[in-house]
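[job 4471] stage=fold_predict status=RUNNING
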Amino acid sequence: MDLQSSALLTDLYELTMLQGYFDRGMEEIAVFEFFVRKLPPTRGFLIAAGLEQVLNYLENLHFTSDELEWLASSGRFSKDFVDYLGRLRFTGDVHAMPEGTIFFSDEPILRITAPLPQAQLVESRLINLLHFQILIASKAARMVLVAPGKLLVDFGLRRAHGAEAGLLAARASYLAGFSGSATVLAAPLFGVPIYGTMAHSFVQAHEDEIAAFENFAHAQPDNVVLLIDTYDTEAAARKVVALAPRLKKEGITIKSVRLDSGDLADHARKVRRILDEGGLKEVRIFASGSLDEYVLRDLIATNAPIDGFGIGSRLDTSSDVPYLDCAYKLQEYAGRARRKRSEGKATWPGRKQVYRYYGPDGRMAYDVVTLEEDTQENGKALVQPFMKAGRRLAPPEPLSDLRKRVAEELARLPEHLQKLQEEPPYPVKISKTLLDLAQAVDARYR
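[job 4471] inference complete, writing structure tokens
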């Protein structure tokens, strides 16, 4: 069983609701939308990501014979219903914001229009795929903003919450502007450039540090990045200076040294001085170890001579914001607008579009959320069609195009959001047309 594509990778209530829909013949067209209710206090914006995995999931959605057999043996579902699931495929439409688009609260990121059982069944996996990559891409984009021009590498696989999370974090961070990842499988799967150095264990396994450096240089002559803080950082830097001429005679050039502990700014300054005085001005300094956008901002503000960063745990777990208040809610069924009115969780009804407006300086000024048919003059419509009748409308976008879109979007953010200042919040306006529909739906149910 392919765990990641299994139709059973869902919440039980999706299937129990489907049994109820099946029993009553409820198969008219439903419209569900995915959105974030409220931005976390330390997020002034989010990056849309994960759409490619969603489209792939929907295209291939089906129950295998083993899965149907298990459902039948569980005793929870009728035989007719299990037979129905065996025939179920996704035949609906998908509208979404393209991956790499900046968005804000209350804005539909994705809309599913399909027969009710299909649209309901996919809820859990869609949220799962979108939520995680949005988290990571948004965290990574903040680091890109505070460290322009720096080499940024995802180092987080070993601390990620499972294999899929590690792989998708590599993709999402690269989409957001990272240079690449240390996760090898991200290269053949997604085309993400991969980077690697060495571990402290490699140094410790040798009788002396300089022998470890020399061994690694011969093993990886085109990528000599030496970890120098296993014992004494500055002493190791001097060993690098001593080793460099010997390696150069063999045609091997030391590319970088890596720092992974202690006061990174202080160590970097001392190491930079040692390298420069030893004639190794071209050797770069790469740093890792409990880094995030705030640490990067402080290091850069103090002009620490660090050329690149490996970011792990705090990126792949989005440590300061480990989840988003997001939802996938029914907005229309059988041609009638629907609206949830739960306290603190009310939704806007109907099929919606988001229009973005820009100021004279080309920066984002405000967004308007309205109904799909309510065209807004001079605004840019953000929600676009991606799938019709269960089939893609175009091939997958190359990651290079997604990276370009993110870079363009970040450049058009209001200046305070580029500096990670979340106040004042970006204006998202609800149109009168949408407000009127919400009142009409409320009146109908009263």
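[job 4471] summary: The domain at 197-288 is CATH 3.20.20.70 (TIM Barrel).
[job 4471] exit 0
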